[in-house]
Fold this sequence. Notes:
The chain is of the alpha/beta class. It folds into two domains: 4-209, L-asparaginase, N-terminal domain (Rossmann fold); 217-333, Rossmann fold (3-Layer(aba) Sandwich), CATH 3.40.50. 26% of the residues lie in helices and 21% in strands. The protein has helices at residues 34-37, 64-76, 93-103, 127-139, 228-234, 257-268, 290-297, 308-319, 325-333; strands at 4-10, 17-19, 26-28, 46-52, 83-87, 104-105, 111-114, 152-156, 159-162, 167-168, 177-178, 186-188, 192-194, 208-209, 217-221, 242-247, 272-277, 301-302. The protein has an eight-stranded mixed sheet with strand order 4-1-5-7-8-9-12-13, with helices on both faces. Strand 10 and strand 11 form a beta hairpin. The longest helix has 13 residues, at 64-76. It starts with a strand and ends in a 10-residue tail after the last helix.
Amino acid sequence: MSQRSVLIIYTGGTIGMLADPRTGALRPMDLAHLEEQVPELDRMNVRLGSESFETPIDSSDMRPADWVRIAKIIGTNYDAYDGFVVLHGSDTMAYTASALSYLLEGLNKPVILTGSQLPIGTIRTDAKENLITAIEIAAAKDEQGRAMVPEVAVYFEYRLMRGNRTVKVHAERFEAFRSPNYPTLAEAGVHIRYDRPAILPHRSGPLVVHDKVDDAVAVIRMFPGIRGAWVGHALTQPDLRMVVLTTFGSGNAPTDPDLLDALREARQKGVILLNVTQCIGGRVEQGRYATSRALAEMGVVPCGDMTVEATLTKAMCLLGRTRDPLELERGMREALCGEVTAL
Length: 343
């Protein structure tokens, strides 16, 4: 068997931090010293390459331009490696994973995002297992010699999940992520067991790396007593193009006349409104109850079982490709890369 190859892309985050022996403060690790911290990598029979952001970014500071930067690194090195592992802070990992799934159109190789809750140099760290298994998955091939997981995924605490289906659900536990509306792609135990029917099929055609993202998007979370005047003010921003409404239950919102008038006015001005449930699991069924019927009547786009992260990043990526309202609405309703169950 020829040696497989994986490119590690370090963007920042806890996984790449080491404690300064003098001060105890955390500082970014030089990837050149990765094998010193994880000597098991020498026994994996995988050729490793590395790329690193010159200045590591805390994931809370990750911006759309950084998503494009990661996508371009993958595009530049696409033919030279069998797979890619992106080391990333966990706080916004679900956003980056979702964005990459849209930016890397026609992806036929694994792009596995992983990180950790404790730095890699800590005795009880979860970083080593996450990194080693992410690399193994990124290098894995099927019986036909094709990538086992030809999509963007998140690996954390023995579970591989579709990137644009993940949400971070815990700030402290090692099991920090969940895929509430889609099966786990693989589970790691004594063996890594893949759920092959759940994994995206291989695509035909070349990889297309999209390099434009438009952040003229906002998120408005519905809550009891939300003021229509406040929502109306938020919706009057001059460059606003799309708004994600996070609603109750199966897509319900207050029926306050001022709130509905503000939403209608935004729709009349061409702002596209998207309906996503606040619930961790389940889907929007707009119009099922009277409290969502008004949204349906004014043309709010129901987003099914998409996560907020997948919806927001999809809106940004589609705006980077077109400003045509019909194309944008059609794109939001379609499954581009497994991010939503058919509406």
